[in-house]
Design goal:
The protein is mainly α. It has one domain: Growth Hormone, Chain: A. Helix content is 85%, strand content 0%. It is built from 18 helices and no strands.
């Protein structure tokens, strides 16, 4: 036992290092999610199309991202969640580099579809890995670290979109820069996984066989994966049959369906219109793309404020009030963007909307990690599927409304829907015997 104690301490340090690298992966995923917002006018100009049509680069990514969740979750449960995150990062590096060379808009859309498919395995499986390795009582705080990575990426992506939109490098330079970032984090993550696997074999003898079956997987995750594989083999289950069974098991529970619907409506009424807010400011106030994107970057800063205060907010408000206040702030912010006659107010409004978003979203996120602990990768991927499928539909509707009816109409539905959905889910949390899952 004495001989293994230093290795156990190192394993714990490396697990913390894994969370740091997963946050780095979430950072570049966050950049990719928002960078096109500020690039839409540049894409429209370069390809001689409308801003609504240019928004298809967001739509294509979101549809592919959401649909691929149905496969990436079961793959993470089978082969190891962190290992699949590294593979997804490598795929994103290749696709973002290819996207930077596309000569036609239709070809760019095809590559964005492949890019979205690769990206599907990053944030959801990082969340699921944390769910496997961190007790629920501490999980919101650790998820907040992952959220810091995502939100920093959203901020950087919003700013970078405007910067590259105004610069000579344009969207091609933006995509190529992302390819370099993806490559760096993928290499570091693979190195860390190899180190974790060796340490796990030294410190946890029962997990050695599982680690051999699943190289590159953390000790706890290897045990879970091996147990799932053994039970499936005993039942004579194929991989596809197991994935189908796990998916149906998640959606069969009424509470899980309610969490997924609440997440879908968030993507529909928040992320859809949000993609066009920088373009709205650029058009209505004659701001540069850099300035418009910089104002909306305060959205991610609002999320950072939430992440820094997460522990105290959870204790002071509880899940039900966090959801309700979050929905009210999101709806009020959409109304302020619609009605304000001053461009500069977009920044403080964006900060409040970002803070409200993560009061709401991080609560749903934590609940999602408890929907099906025995198939956590599948459950969290369904959560992400609902969120980004909602965004895909929202971007389609918002793009059409922006082109044909104007920005005010585009935002008005969200003013009503976001508080209403939050109120309904808050009531469900109050009636549920235990909201912690």
């Amino acid at each position: 036992m004495d001989a293994t104690q230093p290795a156990q301490a190192t394993l714990a340090d490396d697990t913390r290092g894994m969370v740091f690298l997963l946050a780095g992966a979430a950072f570049f995923s966050g950049v990719a999610l928002r960078i096109c917002d500020g690039l839409l006018p540049r894409l429209a100009s370069d390809f001689s199309i409308t801003a609504g049509t240019a928004g298809q680069v967001v739509l294509a990514f979101s549809v592919a991202y959401s649909l691929m969740q149905l496969l990436s979750g079961p793959l993470g449960d089978r082969f190891g969640k962190a290992r699949m995150v590294a593979l997804a990062l490598a795929g994103c590096a290749v696709m973002s580099a290819v996207a930077s060379w596309m000569p036609r808009f239709d070809l760019l859309l095809l590559v964005r579809i492949a890019w979205g498919m690769a990206a599907a395995g990053i944030i959801p499986l990082a969340m699921a890995w944390i769910g496997d390795n961190v007790p629920y009582a501490q999980r919101q705080a650790v998820l907040a670290r992952l959220l810091l990575g995502t939100l920093s990426g959203l901020t950087a992506g919003q700013l970078a979109g405007g910067f590259f939109g105004d610069a000579d490098a344009g969207w091609r330079g933006a995509f190529l820069s992302l390819a370099l970032g993806y490559t760096l984090i993928a290499g570091l993550l693979l190195w860390r996984l190899s180190r974790l696997s060796r340490l796990a074999q030294l410190t946890l003898a029962p997990s050695a066989a599982a680690a051999e079956l699943h190289p590159g997987v953390s000790a706890a995750e290897a045990v879970v994966s091996a147990d799932v594989a053994r039970s499936a083999k005993a039942a004579g289950e194929s991989g596809w049959a197991r994935a189908r069974r796990q998916t149906l098991a998640v959606v069969a529970t009424p509470w899980n369906r309610l969490v997924l619907w609440a997440t879908f409506f968030e993507g529909l009424f928040l992320l859809g219109p949000l993609a066009f807010v920088p373009t709205l400011l650029h058009r209505d106030f004659a701001l540069s793309l850099s300035a418009a994107s910089g104002l909306i970057a305060f959205y991610a800063l609002g999320g950072l404020v939430y992440a820094l205060l997460a522990r105290r907010l959870i204790l002071a408000l509880g899940e039900r009030r966090m959801v309700l206040i979050g929905g009210l702030l999101m709806g009020a912010g959409m109304a302020a963007w619609w009605l304000s006659p001053l461009a500069w107010t977009a920044a403080p409004v964006a900060l409040l909307v970002g803070f409200g978003t993560y009061l709401y979203h991080n609560t749903l996120q934590a609940l999602a990690t408890q929907m099906a602990p025995e198939s956590r990768g599948t459950a969290v991927s369904l959560f992400s599927f609902a969120f980004f499928f909602g965004q895909a539909i929202g971007v389609t509707g918002a793009g059409w409304a922006f082109d044909h009816l104007g920005g005010g109409v585009m935002l008005s539905a969200s003013v009503v829907a976001l508080p209403l959905v939050a109120w309904r889910f808050s009531r469900a949390l109050a009636l549920r015997p235990t909201s912690a899952g």
